[in-house]
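Intended use. Records like the one below are meant for learning the mapping from a protein sequence to its folded structure. Do not use them to infer anything beyond what is encoded.
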Amino acid sequence: MARYFQKKQCRICGNTRLVSVLDLGRQSPANNFLKKSEMNRKKPRFPLAVQFCENCSLLSLCHVVDPEILFVGYQYLTGASAPLVAHFVEEAKMIARKFIRDKSNLVVEFGSNDGTLLAELKDYCRVLGVDPARNVAARAKKRGVPTILAFFGERTAKHIQARHGHARVIVANNVFAHIDALHDVMRGIRTLLREDGVFISESHWVGNLIGEGGFDQIYHEHLSYYSLHALRTLAGVHGLIITDAELLPIHGASLRVTMRRAGTAGASVRQLLLHEEKIGLTRLATFERFAKRASANKAELRELFRELKRKQKTIAGYGAPAKGNTLLNYCGFGRRALAFITDTTPSKQGLLAPGTHIPIVPPAILKTELPDYLLLLAWNYADAILEKEKALRAKGVKFIIPVPRVRIV
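Structure written out for the chain above:
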């Protein structure tokens, strides 16, 4: 029995007249890396396509995969990304400065991963993580961050409130987009939040996805691609107000919003809403143009690889983020296209990329096996990586940056 279903109504406003925009084909979940012993076993692939709601402006996946498949053995580690760690250190300082009054205050983060953010806050207040992935929750506990093994929702919120009291701050970083049962989560936030509390959410901004971002940031875990317009509608349904909004450079551009029980929308909210209207985030035609660009990007990459292979050039991958697996599967790049992919995450090393079965290896391999080209799958960190790998480039290795436009550096 297929462990997914088609989403026929908008998860925010309930609109049933959703418009299909871009189809990336059937793909393996982007974070479901395989052991070599599993290579010959048939692994499930699920439809990967997005649709647009003209009522509330939400872009979302057409199909929802069982979260148990996607998250229970999750391989993504916040602490493995130096730029992300630095970002969360700064966010922790901001939360402590603006919202923490004393050590009795409680900060709850759901989708807390390995506890990177909460570890920075635990000296200022009480902290509690909520995450369904056993492996990452175990890492958080080892660094002194108490973590509940669960999906967050109204039931979990009641459990936390009964045992720990109400939260001064609730945080959801890079997880709000993963949730299908949004209204259950919002009820949980209302249940757990103090009257003077704040809910802070960070998600990849859809304006970056269709602008300077790329189609490869679409994968099964990311069910929703938010604009401020869509989040404002969601907040309003549950009697919350977005009082502040800002775009941050992490992941290309992330949208951070602050929701409260009472207050008014600040200038930052009004300005961003106007900007979204100006660039077309409330119009279907904008997303249809994005789909055409994705198709053209795929064609250009495939032609480049054919030309390089004709010249007998060797190509490997650099970085194994989820977005890279979307790109590889959409373009049809497998082991014939890429000899290997290097990645610094120890838990991914020795595994095979989902769908393509390309081996993931430590970066040390580049000391002995130097390819002519490296496909930069972690392209959102291009500037930092190109600076870091000056020595490789000096040896003649060229980097292929695949999106938002194909270029060689």
